[in-house]
Amino acid sequence: MTKGTLLYEGKAKRVYETKDKDCFIVSYKTDATAFDGKKKGSIEGKDRVNNLMSARLFEVLEEKGIETHFVKVLEEHEMVVKRLEIIPVEVIVRNVAAGGMAKKLGLKEGTPLGKPVVEYCLKSDELSDPMINEDHIEVLELADKEEIQTIRKMALKINQVLKAFFLERELNLVDFKLEFGRYQGRVILGDEISPDTCRLWDLKSGERLDKDRFRRDLGAVEESYLEVLKRVTGMIN
Hints:
Blueprint: E1 6-9, E2 13-17, E3 23-28, E4 31-34, E5 39-42, H1 46-63, E6 70-75, E7 78-82, E8 85-86, E9 89-96, H2 99-105, E10 112-122, E11 131-132, H3 134-139, H4 145-168, E12 171-178, E13 180-183, E14 186-189, E15 198-202, H5 212-215, H6 221-233
Antiparallel strand pairs: 1-2, 2-3, 3-7, 4-5, 6-7, 8-13, 9-10, 9-12, 10-11, 12-15, 13-14
Helix pairs in contact: 1-6
EC number: 6.3.2.6
Enzyme class: ligase
Organism: Isachenkonia alkalipeptolytica
């Protein structure tokens, strides 16, 4: 399958048309941004890590009955995906207080939450991705009530599956971001699952092995991404 016209270029990936009207090619980038694009940089090898890790985790979820947009890996930094009508809502699932949630609620980072917390943000660079609730989603006609219920149910099931998967690899799934879209009348999982979109802490040491190393200038960013890829896929290099 070959790339056609470039349809979209975002902060982390490019999306191309293909000859198959039902499929796109997603090409991951090494570019890295944080704080609404105020901080910019590059993480060597991030394109490969995010692509291969996402592919593996999509396979894990598919095995558990969760439909995703993943079709196949094309190159180490590219995959073929189903053509989705993206629902412009970011879904965040939190298991441990960290980042913005800890700051807003006055919680110490690392505080375990009594239950998974589901949050929603409007995908809008102009508005800096404001937090919204289920009523907002319905009123703005981003998704109907049934779709919202499906998204929440899927997000919690995904969390359950991924928490167990990462735990076996001595990783604590602190929180993560998901995106969903419509495909042939169904809501399915899209986007990616990677160190860019997940907070992953080493289970024993608590060391951060995710994009926070870039955000907070902690160093060893590339090494941390590779370590997560190794634990998720078994790949050494």
